[in-house]
């Protein structure tokens, strides 16, 4: 297993994440609806909004993921935040970075992963919108476009305080 890389700007990225004041907050319907839609739209058993903190990824919203957080070094999303676009892994068992990852060999038995980085207007990537399956999958151009659009909506929402209007 290849541990998730630490970006060169991680201190700045973490500061941007902490400025959002959203880590460890109660569930919010506006984010829960996005992961529910993503799971249904892509027919995936797992969808999450994952925020990558210093040593963990915290699931701000989740469908089909029993854990509230996992260690950053084993996280798929830790890899995805280093990407400029969607990280797509059709079969984690066939990918040397993930084949022996505990999230692949044990629950939730991730085989397919698609993670869209949540990059704030300041340029820092704080997490991902991702969908996962326990079987290998393909993701077409339309799927990628929908995931990117949902990601773009989430980035806008992250900049709004809870309860703020949507004008």
Distance between the termini: 45 Å
Structural class: alpha+beta
What's the total number of strands? 6
Biggest sheet layout? 6 strands, antiparallel
Large-scale geometry: globular
Q: Please tell me the overall pLDDT.
A: 93
Structural Rg = 15 Å
Please give the order of strands in the largest beta sheet.
Answer: 3-2-1-6-5-4
**Helical segment tally?**
5
**Contiguous runs where pLDDT drops below 50 for at least 5 residues:** none
Helix-strand topology string: HHEEEHEHEEH
Which range best describes the helical content: under 10%, 10-25%, 25-40%, 40-55%, 55-70% or over 70%? 25-40%
Strand content: 15-25%
3D structure, described in words:
The protein has 167 residues and is an alpha+beta fold. Helices cover 30% and strands 23% of the residues. A hairpin with a 5-residue loop joins strand 2 and strand 3. It is globular, with a radius of gyration of 15 Å.
Question: Which key features would you list for this structure?
Answer:
167 residues, alpha+beta, globular, six-stranded antiparallel β-sheet, 5 helices, single chain
Short description:
The chain is an alpha+beta fold.
């Amino acid at each position: 297993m290849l541990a998730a890389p630490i970006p060169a700007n991680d201190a700045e990225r973490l500061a941007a994440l902490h400025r959002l004041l959203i880590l460890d907050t109660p569930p919010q319907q506006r984010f829960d609806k996005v992961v529910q839609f993503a799971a249904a739209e892509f027919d995936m058993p797992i969808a999450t909004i994952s925020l990558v903190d210093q040593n963990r990824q915290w699931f701000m919203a989740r469908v089909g993921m029993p854990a509230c957080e996992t260690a950053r070094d084993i996280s798929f999303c830790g890899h995805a935040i280093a990407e400029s676009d969607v990280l797509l892994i059709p079969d984690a068992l066939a990918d040397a970075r993930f084949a022996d990852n505990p999230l692949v060999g044990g629950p939730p038995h991730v085989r397919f992963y698609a993670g869209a980085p949540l990059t704030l207007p300041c340029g820092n990537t704080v997490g991902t919108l991702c969908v996962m399956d326990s079987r290998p999958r393909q993701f077409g151009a339309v799927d990628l476009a929908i995931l990117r659009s949902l990601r773009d909506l989430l980035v806008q929402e992250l900049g709004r305080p809870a309860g703020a209007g949507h004008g």
